[in-house]
Amino acid sequence: MAMERFFGQGVSSEEENWISISDLMAGLMVIFLFIAITYIRPIIEIQNQIREIVVAWNDSELEIYDALEREFKDDLPKWHAELDPETLAVRFKAPDVLFDSGTANLKPEFEEILSDFFPRYIKLLYVFREAISEIRIEGHTSSEWEGALTDDEAYFNNMVLSQARTRTVLVYSLGLQEVVEYKEWARDQLTANGLSSSQLIYVSQQEDKIQSRRVEFRVRTNSKEQIVKVLETIE
């Protein structure tokens, strides 16, 4: 037969159909491969963006911590303070130095500390201003309140007190003459946050009432917001 002469051997119609189906499947596989590449490439690019942001976030936080540690390492012991590497918080933890008992009045010793600490703190953070989204002044209390009949009453009384204290610290700090150069930027970044007894400090599973009464200056970087923007782009 002509077909047999052309191919040199006989080819059944079933074999011809199989060859056609094989070619079709191969073609479909190529198409699916291109589709997969089309979808995968943007995902890989987004993953790379997130990875770069996370690395930059980690690097910026390490740089801020190192700068704070170098600046204040000799002062922290005499201020009864510490620097937390995990939260970038400068923690003033001697309540008898900070305020008059039960009031938001700064003690003279704490005013002296703030006068030394805050101008240097703001000047240092200004260098990292592109990476900073918020500087939080946090007021913390113990869980107790003399004369409170319930835990709720103690909590809400401490909330009012802690908010008043952080506001006092904010007003005093921004009012320092040495801060004038950075005041406009600082005012946009600073927040005063009274947290009552919501973040107690425990030692051996027991509340440390003295350590719980504290004031913290905490830095928040903006890399998390950048990640959110990338995720919104994905959606």
Task: Describe this protein's structure.
The chain is of the alpha+beta class and 235 residues long. 60% of the residues lie in helices and 14% in strands. The chain has nine helices and seven strands; from the N terminus they run αααββααβααβββαβα. The longest helix is centred in the N-terminal third of the chain and has 60 residues, at 13-72. The model is unreliable at 1-8 (pLDDT under 50).
Question: How many extended strands?
Answer: 7
Measured on Cα atoms, how large is the radius of gyration?
Answer: 32 Å
Total domain modules: 1
H/E element order: HHHEEHHEHHEEEHEH
What would CATH call the class? Alpha Beta
Shape: elongated
Mean pLDDT reading: 85
Which structural category do the helix and sheet elements fall into?
A: alpha+beta
- CATH level 4 superfamily: OmpA-like domain
CATH fold call: 60s Ribosomal Protein L30, Chain: A
Q: What is the makeup of the main sheet?
A: 5 strands, mixed
Number of helices: 9
DSSP helix fraction: 55-70%
Q: List segments where confidence is low: pLDDT < 50 over at least 5 consecutive residues.
A: 1-8
Describe the structure in brief.
The chain is an alpha+beta fold and 235 residues long. The chain contains 9 helices and 7 strands; from the N terminus they run αααββααβααβββαβα. The chain is 60% helix and 14% strand.
What order do the helices and strands come in, and which of them pair?
Blueprint: H1 2-7, H2 13-72, H3 76-79, E1 81-84, E2 89-92, H4 95-98, H5 108-127, E3 132-140, H6 151-174, H7 183-189, E4 190-194, E5 202-203, E6 206-207, H8 209-212, E7 214-221, H9 223-234
Parallel strand pairs: 3-4
Antiparallel strand pairs: 1-2, 2-7, 3-7, 5-6
Helix pairs in contact: 2-5, 2-9
